Amino acid sequence: xxxxxxxxxxxxxxxxxxxxxxxxxxxxxxxxxxxxxxxxxxxxxxxxxxxxxxxxxxxxxxxxxxxxxxxxxxxxxxxxxxxxxxxxxxxxxxxxxxxxxxxxxxxxxxxxxxxxxxxxxxxxxxxxxxxxxxxxxxxxxxxxxxxxxxxxxxxxxxxxxxxxxxxxxxxxxxxxxxxxxxxxxxxxxxxxxxxxxxxxxxxxxxxxxxxxxxxxxxxxxxxxxxxxxxxxxxxxxxxxxxxxxxxxxxxxxxxxxxxxxxxxxxxxxxxxxxxxxxxxxxxxxxxxxxxxxxxxxxxxxxxxxxxxxxxxxxxxxxxxxxxxxxxxxxxxxxxxxxxxxxxxxxxxxxxxxxxxxxxxxxxxxxxxxxxxxxxxxxxxxxxxxxxxxxxxxxxxxxxxxxxxxxxxxx
Length: 410
Known about the structure:
By secondary structure, the chain is of the alpha/beta class. The protein has helices spanning about 1-45, 50-60, 100-105, 150-165, 190-200, 225-240, 260-275, 290-295, 310-325, 340-350, 355-360, 365-380, 385-390, 395-410, and strands at about 75-80, 80-85, 90, 110-115, 130-135, 140, 175-180, 205-210, 250-255, 280, 305, 330-335, 350-355. The protein has a single domain (about 70-410), classed as Alpha-Beta Barrel (TIM Barrel). Strand 7 (about 175-180), helix 5 (about 190-200) and strand 8 (about 205-210) form a beta-alpha-beta unit. Helix 9 (about 310-325) runs parallel beside helix 10. It is a single-pass membrane protein. This is Dihydroorotate dehydrogenase (quinone), mitochondrial. It catalyses: (S)-dihydroorotate + a quinone = orotate + a quinol.
């Protein structure tokens, strides 16, 4: 009897200690994110590009919060046979040279996309080239693919992988690599093929970026003839490379929101004909809505991101989901700053969702908040997984179930 009582007291003590530790780590997380939120307005006292560089440096040196809480089970999702612990990712453009992958994943993202990476180093466009529109929670940038080049990025990613190999127990987020072309290159396909050959071994997926408005002539590669030629060459390069037991990294194309109906139809046709693995919808826009047009720096050249981009990018996302008949996973990007925004992207057809400008304004605390709100949206509508919600605005329950299983095994 005394032995049984002792065991019960020991069990209660263990449970109590576990609860105390859980509460301690929860409070520690909250304090870290609170501190980061206080730092965000201070960073915005700097010019936009300097603030961006400081944020990347901070993430690279571990000076950002780390999310210790497990994500809600409803947020786990499978795309391309890869399990994402949650569907919220960081878009390309923040960590251009893969200097801060570990720190950024630690914030709580399910995946991080680095780049755009060009084959040769290039400085990008002259400064100033980033402009804040704080009342609109928007930004205009004309960076122009400033990049340290594929060799430097490959070195950074090799070091990151070595750190992971030294700590195999750590849960790993997934990594996308966004590829660009050099400004003066006359053979765009060759540039993208270099990116595939040198960086593909580190990537959970690869992206052909043909939609930045800041590299002359780049968006013309979205035309049907040009895109078909490009995709065929890059896909041939990828498929002819030995990748080991896991197989080749999925290949996606990132498109602009400023497309005609004919453009969208052509892109969908090329994607289906050549078995692309997915699309990213969308990049920044060259359009200037009235509220942006009237803003003091609203007429600066470059791509507009943030809240004003949400509606147009989600409309293009919905159109591409319909045009591809839900056969391709789509990453929804543009103007996401809440769990409800992410949920709308998913219901419009996104399997995964990315953000960038929202975090620039709200700081790292935005990431756990979006995850929490997204889980609440799913529960509110009686859904137990992200996959059940993909394309829900287009399809009936039976079709959604079929789509979920297709993406799971693809």
